């Protein structure tokens, strides 16, 4: 049984490597989200273009994680618990890849919006929302690294605040569109941007739930607090 | 080596079982999409409610697939090729779960839209789009079962047609909103519905790409034909 510790530490080393790739991916996604929101606010097309181009590196990291994770499973035949960790890393990487796409889409729409009349106050509100979501995403990854179910539960609760920010923006955009039809196209883009940032928040929550599952072996029992009510929204003023 | 065939067939049997669950999931998602589109067109709130409730069964199947797949990997220690198949089933199940969420969201918005004045022609156009996407989703799953890279490549190409249907609807909704601000809220919901159906099409494409990767060992080289140009859309009439 003298090889046992060697096999275990080889597994740990490989796991460390894919975790490090995942964290690098998380850092790139967080930066892309903040940069895209800044490009929107400052109407900086060059920065938007850099965010768009940068998505390739995020996609490449996900592919590399998938390859390394499959190799690790095949070579090391991990135990049930270790296997669950590896599969969780793959799931988190898939979430981050989607978040990167949302940031890229935000950057695309930012380049279009810089050609239109600005909608007063919207870019600042979107930047604040992007910042709040970036913090959630970062803390969801921290909770994974530290196997901290309490931090994960906290992320999960705070996503409702992001949903409220989105709801407020949704009503505001509707009002702008009704006031002046010339605002409609810009507001449609801004609305999609807000929705996509809200979706990044949902992914942060999803990552936090994976961490809770990994640490406790069970998904949180109560339904996730979900405060996006816009899918049932009636026109402003309707009862 | 007399146990070899036994081990192999136990793996095959387990794999068959999770594939069957995945196909059942696919059938539920296809039905949910078509039912939700029909509920929208016929303003059938009961049908919409059934779609919303039905999403739980789809989520439960994904969880079961994840558990069974992890168990299969841990118990059978599959070879690299077999492992890739199991991981692909997990990825496809995650895609189907997202598609189920989109159908549920469509059903939610359908219940809201039934309380508003209809936008002429929109529900029929959305039903046709849902039908086209349902066919793509079904064929992407068929291509997996039959390991048919040619069918998968065909699905991938035809997703551009769905993107074109979405583009046409996007322009139409913009026009309706500009013509009459009272249409704005309904058109926002319809627009989200169209976008979510288009995203189901993207998932069908993603599944097809997984199949091509599984069969050929390489992802398709040329970038996926992508024809959603609305993220760079300017107002109708703008140059």
From TrEMBL, chains A, B:
The keyword Cytoplasm applies. It holds the Pfam family PhoU. InterPro entries: PhoU (IPR028366), PhoU-like_sf (IPR038078), PhoU_dom (IPR026022). Transmembrane segments: none annotated. It is found in: Cytoplasm. Signal peptide: none annotated. GO terms for biological process: intracellular phosphate ion homeostasis; negative regulation of phosphate metabolic process; phosphate ion transport. Keywords: Cytoplasm, Phosphate transport, Transport. Belongs to the PhoU family. Homodimer. This is Phosphate-specific transport system accessory protein PhoU. It comes from Szabonella alba. The lineage of its organism: Bacteria, Pseudomonadati, Pseudomonadota, Alphaproteobacteria, Rhodobacterales.
């Amino acid at each position: 049984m003298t090889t046992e510790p060697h096999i275990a530490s080889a597994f740990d080393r490989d796991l460390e490597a894919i975790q490090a790739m995942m964290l690098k991916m998380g850092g790139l996604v967080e930066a892309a989200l903040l940069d895209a929101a800044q490009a929107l606010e400052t109407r900086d097309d060059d920065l938007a273009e850099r965010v768009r181009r940068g998505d390739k590196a995020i996609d490449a990291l996900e592919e590399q994680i998938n390859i390394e994770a499959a190799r690790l499973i095949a070579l090391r035949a991990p135990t049930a618990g270790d296997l669950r960790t590896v599969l969780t890393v793959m799931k988190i990487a898939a979430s981050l890849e989607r978040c990167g796409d949302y940031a890229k889409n935000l950057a695309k729409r930012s380049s279009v919006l810089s050609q239109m009349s600005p909608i007063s106050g919207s870019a600042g509100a979107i930047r604040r929302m992007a910042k709040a979501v970036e913090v959630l995403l970062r803390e969801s990854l921290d909770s994974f690294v530290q196997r901290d179910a309490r931090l994960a539960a906290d992320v999960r609760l705070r996503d409702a605040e992001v949903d409220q920010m989105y709801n407020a923006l949704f009503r505001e955009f509707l009002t702008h569109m009704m006031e002046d039809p010339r605002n409609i196209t810009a507001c449609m883009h801004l609305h999609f941007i807000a929705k996509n940032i809200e979706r990044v928040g949902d992914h942060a929550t999803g990552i936090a739930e994976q961490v809770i599952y990994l640490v406790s072996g069970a998904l949180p029992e109560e339904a996730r607090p979900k405060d996006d009510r816009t899918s049932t929204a009636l026109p402003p003023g309707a009862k």
